[in-house]
């Protein structure tokens, strides 16, 4: 089964509702910037690359929705659409990258009629979506070479097809390794509080018969100490200019443990996730989400009443703990300011 | 509110059912070794010291139950009782310590009638229970001195009143520090999969108005990296002769992170938890529990169908990561084979 995280159907954007997976597999449909922003905020769609693609469609949908309006109304409506999308989630830079790219296209269409602008923006959203899959395939090919045959690979959260337009970043590397004939088994951290590992990564791997073992997040150290992990591969929501990596909360702990046990720690990172405007990890905004995610899961609420809660959704892994970034342009060993800048010069 | 984890009432043992806390606060009642073993296995009662006390009562209950039998039936029944209790859980050494102590008392009563033996065993169980609270108070006093005023203390799992006969080991140290007039705030790891932190530690602290903040297990590194943790205090299920510490799964990861951030890592450890017969952590048996604990919580099951699961209930923190053991005989800095042996000589 090929997973289509986002698809265009009937002049609407449809997205798999990832909040209810794996119990139910359903598409929700979106027809405006505000509705897409809602879908991003509520995590119908999540994963940095998928958020970037969704935001691009959000802009195109807004243009389609407003194309009958007068020019001034169209322009102010579009600005409002960009704003609501930009405010949906703060950490994944692909969101801003996608919006910026759509804004440039819009800017290049000055003087043309609304309908032509809307068509062009929709084409660009389609292109961003297709590009994302091509990029994931390229990263997959580079990353697959890093994994030995028989590798037992630990991953955190879901950087799979569901986090992208398809194939996945971290899981894309595993898929490409399997396609290349390597025997790969996956250890999936469940990834509290939203349980992307238990629900999404496990589901993707089971769909494709790639052996997958689920653990709670606090078992990763045990597995490493027993020699049961050969490599770690994760995705990222934003990489700073110096190579510091923002990714799902808990990634930092995995990286520290991997270093202690001499296990390579790879980050699958399309260039669109690198933010040269951010000097280091300390400058990356970390989203704090609601307490109810930590005191339980969905309707099951188990924590003692009256307890305070922290819920940072991401953490920062310093570049020194990263063995390599895997990009669509190749593998960047021991990432630093210089070799990252080099990616954008070549 | 004083928490009585285990109490004697109407010639039965009553234990708070910790599986349903904090949604419900209820005692379950036990009248035989087999029923107590069931209560231990199903985690009605958990925490190494509490398991030791429960096992002692299990032996006493079996003697009371069988006191009307002929001597040979009494003896074989008692042996069966010891066996079923010993098989209830493998990692906490207090279980075996409690059983051994009861066996010695039984052995000292050779030739006396069953009723006298049963009375004496019940007295011993009562004494073990009282002793446990006295020991926790002594550890608390020693441990409280290690914590600076205003300390933000991270703890993992529940080593509280609920894990003991009362006061607690790790949480006992925090309680004693608060009683000594120090301002202490607690950061509680939720402790998947059984959620002892979210359910039990948070509940105990809320009861006593000690400020407590709940995080998921994978947030501990984030909190440390932001300078929001001043010390870690945990309990233990078994300490090897060299100072390696078995404790709830995830403890090892916290210890590695604490070392990286220069944060002291303290282990509250009554002498009954030290197992001189075990040379190092590698020789401590690690219980693996059922998959359903990891694929969800209680009736809420969220993981993808078909995923394999690992569920080790404990991990090993090597002695080198332990800043100090806090025992009822004092603080053992940088635990090793020599200073641990010294505890039993003095």
Q: Sketch the topology of chain A as an H/E string, one letter per element.
A: EEEHHHHHEHEHEHEEEHEEHEEEEEEH
Oligomer: homodimer
Taken as a percent bin, the fraction of beta residues of chain A is 15-25%
Number of strands of chain A: 17
Output the structural class of chain A. alpha/beta
Biggest beta-sheet profile of chain A: 7 strands, mixed
The helical percent of chain A reads 40-55%
What's a concise summary of this model?
Two copies of one chain form a homodimer. The first copy, chain A, is an alpha/beta fold. Chain A has helices at residues 33-41, 48-66, 71-86, 93-107, 114-144, 170-179, 196-207, 220-225, 251-260, 292-295, 337-345, and strands at 6-9, 12-16, 27-30, 152-155, 185-189, 212-215, 231-234, 238-240, 245-248, 265-268, 274-275, 296-297, 300-301, 308-309, 314-317, 324-327, 330-333.
